[in-house]
Amino acid sequence: MDVSFLGGPRPQRGVGVVAPFDFALDRELWRWVPDEVSLHLTRTPFVPVEVSLDLARLVSEHETLGEAVRALTAVAPEVVAYACTSGSFVGGMAGERAMRAAMTRAGELPSVTTSGALLEALAELGARRVALVTPYTVSVTRALEGYVAEAGIRVTGCAYMGLTRHIWQVPYRDVVAMARRAARPGTADALFLSCTNLPTYDVIPQLEAELRMPVISANQVTMWAALRRLGTRAVGPYQALLDAAARAWPVLPEEQQEGWT
Question: If you placed Cys at 59, which of 20, 54, 93, 139 could pair as Cys (CB 3.0 to 4.6 Å)?
């Protein structure tokens, strides 16, 4: 069959992604990506450590990141993203900036990290109060709280799961239950679902409608920030970060009653 009339595949723009060795949600990342963009993923080397602050430090060492970014340059991405929340907040804001600088030096490319993208997304939404949901242990969760506070964001509620492995197996119902514990309407400007290994794509619209606030997740903000560097938009229906029209919630009758807070 003559297929010459097709003219070959459409040109693709590339986003390089460096993920921890245990990252299992490649498919979820792709759901935010428009058709004309390809993701090129690589992983950090395996280390026999459970999810912890120690692991976060190991998978974010500058030498490790530099090697991963240099490997990605073979396929010529236009931007590179480090898809790990704890690995990019474990050193605080200064550590996150240093990571981006190391990645940019290694690949001579614009670079983003999940935790840097989180702060960028909160600024985009005008959020100064945030509720947090994490799958982490208490020590890792407290480190995230410290990172957010360092940026001048007030944490108004937090729920965590205490997991040290197999985070990608958490069902949506558990994510929703934790979100309900962490945030109530009127108490925060946004809710953040932390960890790139936590499945979140399909629950974001549901939680935004129920909690009546923007709900952002680690994978969502990572893709949103990386694609902004390309001058294009992430795709995701009914997600407030991606569509300003989705940020307006109608006033409910009970909110019109005297004394509503």
Answer: 20
